[in-house]
Amino acid sequence: MRDFIAVEDRALLERHGLADFDALWALKLEAVDEPNTERGGWSSVYRLDLGEAAYYLKRQSNHLTRDLAHPFGEPTFAREFRNIQRYRRLAIPALEAAFYGQRRQPGEHRAVLLTRALDGWRDLDWYLDQWAQLPDAQRTAILEACGGLARRLHQAGQMHGCFYPKHIFLRATGAAFETRLIDLEKTRPLLLGRRDRLKDLEPLLRRARVWGDVELRRLLGAYLGGTGEVHDWLRRLARRRRDKEARR
Fold first, then answer.
1. pLDDT digits over 162-211, tens only?
2. In sequence order, which residues have a C-beta less than 8 Å from that of residue 202 and are 6 or more positions away?
């Protein structure tokens, strides 16, 4: 795979001498969290501020995933980058890639993924933490935005796979909210119709415990486009939640 550099970011990265893999790999930055070492290698995230723009730089070494197409493994960032580009082609609002590249050398498989920071956005968890203090109009706008995002995602034939509040970002635009999705590594095509759609939505509803029946109906109304199926979907989602909790 050739290195990818977004047209919109190339000039800025070149101006700072960061338009190639080696420069981004060698850059000295402090990680924003602990390295992920679950797959035998490591994967870390860093914030990169370049004056007029901010990014998150993700670097990994031997942090691989395996499937039939890649039996010997490929960086998990490769899958995430492909999904970011797929969402862009399908016009599903999500984080945006500025750079992607990977390198093989003896005993090591490295990858770099640079994405634009969502400064000015807040994740849904932030709004849920203060849900009781939000004005009714703002609550309604958030529910409709989240339902519309899920509708757009599934109509494009995609299942997010980690549709959690912390992965849904919102930004107020007047009385409404824009939305963006992050963490696309587990995205896959919708294969099982309503079953996959329910499976995708259930984690969101399970984690948004401050939402009562009225809120869930409003979100599902936006998701279903005003059809009369809201009651049936509520019943099915409640059953999935009970089954999930019973297995714990």
1. 999 999 999 999 999 999 999 999 999 999 899 999 999 999 999 999 99
2. 237, 240, 241, 244
